[in-house]
Amino acid sequence: MITRWGILGCGFISGDFIESLKLLNDGHKIVAIAGRCRERVNEFAQQHNLCDAKLYYDYDSLIDDEALDVVYVGTRNHTHFELVMRALDAGKSVLCEKPMGLSHDQVKAMIDKAKSKSLLLQEGFWSRFFPVYKDIRGLLDSNAIGEVKIIQADMGFPIMANTERLAKKEFGGGMAFDIGCYLLQFFVLVFGVDAPIEDIIVNGWTSGPDNLDDSASITIMLEGNRMAQLLYSGSASLAARAQICGTKGRIDIPEFFYCPQDYALTVIPSHSSTKPVVRKISHPPSTNADPKAFHFGRTHGLVYEAEGVRKALTEGNIECPEMTHNESLKVIELLDKIRHKIYG
């Protein structure tokens, strides 16, 4: 079965998703693309060599196209809710870029709609589909590093000041929605949706004409003397490293924890006189991608997400096990709380 895609939005992330689909060849077909600017849609189609795709100059026409199996929503944050609900009402499955919604109420409404329609709805946390993340799940499930006590992660790019979609409230801007959510999905991956949170401590600052969150340090305290320390920034370059620290060892992701290819597993032996055992594991890209074809680094890794969605569709599921609806709800719940602490 070929999965037939309709692409909403002609921005950089939509372009990278299209280039990833092209790497997969068999099994995926780009049937249509849509945007609100005729010139931009035509230019986008030419740029990505979409000779056979239908071109639509409004979103509703693409959503109503009966030739589609699934709609990819790659538009700005503030449009996600309306477009996802419209697509689900039209009987289309949806892969929506993160953040799927701008509040817990929005995300819950979208998930409830998908369930009522028995349609797949997937939040586009591409991180969850990388082989490294699957390894981490297995290591945590097997108690390889014992009880997890502390996690640390950071992520930052000096991009907020000169990126319109991040600096304007009307577009659903702010860095919590853009990269802070990656830190929170990592927290949920490790500690789960039922993590017994005792307190959330947030320190940060806002910037720009709309006074949106730029940078923040987040400490989440959990029962059992456990905690997460998370740091994001839209004005400083951070290494995007992550650690999962347990009573028997540690998992280190040295860079790009949100799209990782490598990690190290350190296991502490039971005898203190024996040195820790360190294994370095690498998962090189599964496809031969030309980096020049992509705007963002490592976004050829979107192939994992596309294949995950295809698998869920063929199996008749309404979510991917890599990132469930309950996990999306937990992430937006945490985002709501953190943003409330920043904005007051």
Automatic annotation (TrEMBL):
Protein name: Trans-1,2-dihydrobenzene-1,2-diol dehydrogenase
Keyword vocabulary terms for this entry: Oxidoreductase
Organism classification: Eukaryota, Metazoa, Ecdysozoa, Nematoda, Chromadorea
Segments forming domain GFO/IDH/MocA-like oxidoreductase: 133-251
The reaction(s) this protein catalyses: (1R,2R)-1,2-dihydrobenzene-1,2-diol + NADP(+) = catechol + NADPH + H(+); D-xylose + NADP(+) = D-xylono-1,5-lactone + NADPH + H(+)
EC numbers, comma separated: 1.1.1.179, 1.3.1.20
PANTHER family xref list: OXIDOREDUCTASES, TRANS-1,2-DIHYDROBENZENE-1,2-DIOL DEHYDROGENASE
Residue ranges constituting the Gfo/Idh/MocA-like oxidoreductase N-terminal domain according to the UniProt record: 4-125
Entry's family note: Belongs to the Gfo/Idh/MocA family.
Matches recorded under Pfam families: GFO_IDH_MocA (PF01408), GFO_IDH_MocA_C3 (PF22725)
Organism: Steinernema hermaphroditum
GO MF entries: D-xylose 1-dehydrogenase (NADP+) activity; nucleotide binding; trans-1,2-dihydrobenzene-1,2-diol dehydrogenase activity
